[in-house]
Amino acid sequence: MFSASNDPRVVADGGQPGPPSRITATVMRRPTKPPANVTALERGFAVLDCFARANGPLGNGDVAEATGIPRPTAYRLISTLVSLGQLRPCPDSDKYELAAGVVRLAQSFLGAIDARRLVRPHLVALAEACGASAFLGLRDGPDILVVEAARARSAVAFLGADVGTRMSLASSALGRAWLAGVDPITCATVSADTLRAGSTVPPSRLEAALRKARRLGYAASLGEWHAQINAVATPVQAPSGEVFAINCGGPSFLITPDKLHEVVIPRLLRAAADFAAEIGGISGLTLTSATAPPAPAAAATPRRRTAPSSV
Known about the structure:
This protein has 311 residues and is an alpha+beta fold. It is 42% helix and 16% strand.
């Protein structure tokens, strides 16, 4: 039996169903569940990550033990990745290693890195937090070239530099951070070229500044690049090996040494670390400690010869 209460149309006066034009539909939406992860895909990437972290080729058992994936499943995943060109079998061995397929993915990622675009939010946040100016610099000959800049909106005075400004590698915080972030041979070569190009910084002072930068993870320039400017900077290395430098600073009457240590340096290192994580690179002390030249071997102390004892 048909019941008026079951009629989808709105009931009109007199108990009769109204015309179709007055129909009101109530749609009952089912609660949606978040899409489930594809377990096989997750495991495939876990296998690739396992190979990426390894120091050498891996076998099925090695992958199963490292990932917790059952050995038969690990075997099937490895076989699939081999067929896709992501892994390859090692000659004269039952183990596997990364293949050229992963290089295509890496090249695509590296080619898409736009350092200026990606670093800008970090520079803006850094400048605002410190009430100062923040720059991204790249080496260009004997100088460090500012390629991106941000300034705090609340700053009553700011460092008079912008995109395109050149700073000395030897006297600026940006330049010293870049030198501390490159390999020892490049650092020595570029430093010598910079000093020969007419830098007023004595070699001993530059060497001392770079030693300190490698030990701390950041470089400082207190009135050296400009008499009234204090700044600190830290290096960032992209996955391609290219080294950038990020700094933060301003007029010395606003950016005092105390403010540098209490406010600017912690935020600078955090901003650089966040930027490095975003592009898959490294920064700060992680980078400078890796690029520090080996300490000179200590001279052996000659042993004093003693006269033979008489019997």
